[in-house]
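Suppose you are handed a protein chain with no further information: no name, no annotation, nothing but its sequence. What can you learn? This example shows the usual starting point.
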Amino acid sequence: MNTFTITWHVQNEEAPVLLREYLKKKQISKAALTDIKFHGGALFVNKNEVTVRTQLNGGDEVTVWFPPETKSSSMEVENIPLDILYEDHHFIAVHKPAGMPTIPSLYQPNGSLASAILYYYQENNISSTFHAVNRLDKDTSGIVLIAKHRFAHSLMSKQQKDKVIKREYIAFVHGELKDERGTIDQPIARKPESIIERMVSEGGQRSITHYEKLDFVKNSNFSVVSLRLETGRTHQIRVHMSSIGHPLIGDDLYGGTLEMLERQALHSEKTSFIHPFTEECIMLVADLPQDMKKLWKHR
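A reasonable first move is to predict its three-dimensional structure. Written in structure tokens, the prediction is:
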């Protein structure tokens, strides 16, 4: 199975320095170094295996071999086709269809994106488990970004915390929005009597959604809205739009109806991030799915 490696070249201004300190600056934690030492990874300087006590000089080549990862024994592997939008040594991004859960659950143990990714890894000799950078509700379509190893996932978690990752959604909501654009800054909490439903609540976590009206479909009385999240709470868009009187079409949990669509009309259309290893800005786009295209087209 293929394991993951990363190589850096030590700059003159960075040396002399111990390998331990150099890797710390590269955001490799003590826990990661312990994992490398005891679970099949290795550290190399100029292609020679070394320890973290090695001193580095300008021009040295540092390579980290990460230990192979194995999936949880409880995770199923399923041959499900993937719509891959982007892939490199560290990440894979897919267009998840509506109806597919991101991870298995008690209520839907089969047919998940995680199971499909694990099959893809198995077929391509990738020694990893499922590290989702973001998740989507089962009935929300669009972009899911997945890290291929723990280190990549930890770096992307930091980008999420620092709001470097940008995500934009398209939603169809009931009624006509009065304002062309706006911001909903309302805390969200779990509804006390439910394990699924969320609500706007003063005791909840701060949640911020920016929206812009793209179209109003008069004869069907719905608005097409572009949304950008500053936070990523469970059901955030669904709760926020319902809270201002415009629930999503197909979202009967939060006040929408199923007359035009039998799932919430929500699609993760765009995602951008700074690649933590190449420093490139990666822009991903997932086309609107056919059910939403058809509803918008046949207005």
